[in-house]
Amino acid sequence: MKKRFALALFIFAAVLGTLYATGKLEGLIDRFREKDPNRIRLYGNVEIRQVLLGFRVPGRIEAIHREEGERVASGDLLGILDPVPYRIKRSEARGAMLQAKAALDKLHRGFRAEEVREAEAQRDRVRASLNLAEKDYGRISNLFARKAVAKSDLDRAASQRSALKAELAAAENALALVREGYRREDIEAAEAAYETANARLAEAENALSDTELRSPAEGTILTRVSEPGTVVGAGQVVYALALERPIQVRTYIPEPQLGRVRVGMPARIVTDSSPDPIEGTLAFISPTAEFTPKQVQTEDLRTDLVYRARILVEDDRDGRLKNGMPVTVLMEAVSMESKEASEAAASR
User: Fold this and answer.
1) d(CA 80, CA 116)
2) Rounded to whole angstroms, how far apart are CA atoms 308 and 200?
3) Pairing mode of beta strands 231-232, 278-289
4) CA 328: distance to chain centroid?
5) Cα–Cα distance measured from residue 343 to residue 347, given in angstroms and rounded to the nearest whole number
6) Taking the mean position of all CA atoms in its chain, how far away is CA 152?
7) Which among 86, 262, 299, 334 has the fewest CB atoms less than 10 Å away?
8) How far apart are CA 261 and CA 306, in angstroms?
9) What pairing do the DSSP bridges indicate for beta strands 39-53 and 239-254?
10) Distances from the Cα of 126 to the Cαs of 113, 169, 242, 269, in angstroms?
């Protein structure tokens, strides 16, 4: 009898040792504690957010730098499109911008001093010709008064004098315009053209920078969709990236437990592959039931309602949590009095 008891005790100790070594002992202890009114046990799955990465411009892929499973940091270069077509467009845009800038600078500076002096000289030439025409008209008028010349000669002299007067007025107006500079409307039109050219240059430079695909955050490459030489469209998926942060657990809180939890309370996340819990925080509780029975429910049916919740993982440096992994969430329930007090303090 004693030998059988000793053998049973040895077997029991061996089982306990195996359970402890494999991390399942804590799970058994937790199952016995489930009846503890202060312990809340929930079940859920890990959700790791994913980003589908692609180039913002179309083109031919020149290089792909990352493989599936590689970790990347924010800003790491993942791939490159053939940049030659976009460099050509940038050069064209820069040339148009420089041309528009030169035209605007010309209008801002006004006419050159040489152009002003030329306009003054033209005015002086016309003025001298008008003085000579005035004298000729005076002489011909005297001769016509003495009937020494014909009426046609007098008319010819008067016509020449009038033409030179009009030419002098035009020369003086041209000189005034040269001294004043270009019209404000022309300058504003040139400024608008320069701004348009600048915008097109910025657009071309931005398109050229978009030929480089960079990681938006830290994460792990899940899938590599395209290869070098592939012609892709704008937004076509090239990589799928699993973000390192945030990692969260989607779970459901039964309606009877809803009054015993609050947003911000700590939670422990336990996986089947590791006995060590991972710390988390209850970050969200859905205001509505995920599955709603009939509009009129009995008390028994009301207990079947569940509310979606999200547990935010604070730290998973070891990378134990994988997308879709089933986990157990353990929380210590709060009393209604403490919950009401915390809500009142938050409202204040």
Assistant:
1) 56
2) 49
3) unpaired
4) 37
5) 6
6) 83
7) 299
8) 13
9) antiparallel
10) 20, 9, 83, 99
- Phi, psi angles (nearest 5°) of residue 93: -65, -40
Which among 211, 235, 237, 213 has a CA at the least distance from the CA of 224? 237
Separation of first and last alpha carbons in the chain: 70
Q: How far apart are CA 280 and CA 278, in angstroms?
A: 7
- 281 with 311: CB under 8 angstroms? yes
Fold topology of 90-206: Four Helix Bundle (Hemerythrin (Met), subunit A) (1.20.120)
Instruction: Read off the pLDDT of residues 167-226 as tens digits, 9 standing for 90 and up.
Output: 888 888 877 777 766 778 888 899 999 999 999 999 999 999 999 999 999 889 999 999
Tokens of 125: 């030439």
State pLDDT tens for residues 1-59: 555 555 555 565 565 556 555 555 455 444 444 455 678 888 888 888 889 999 999 99
Domain layout of the chain by residue ranges: 27-48+245-347, 90-206
| Backbone phi, psi, residue 156, to 5° | -65, -40
The whole-angstrom distance between residue 127's C-alpha and the CA centroid of its chain comes to: 67
Q: In terms of pTM, does the model score above 0.70?
A: no
Q: CATH assignment of 27-48+245-347, given 3.40.50.720, 2.50.20.10, 2.40.30.170, 3.20.20.140?
A: 2.40.30.170
Q: Which residues pair with 40 in a beta bridge?
A: 331
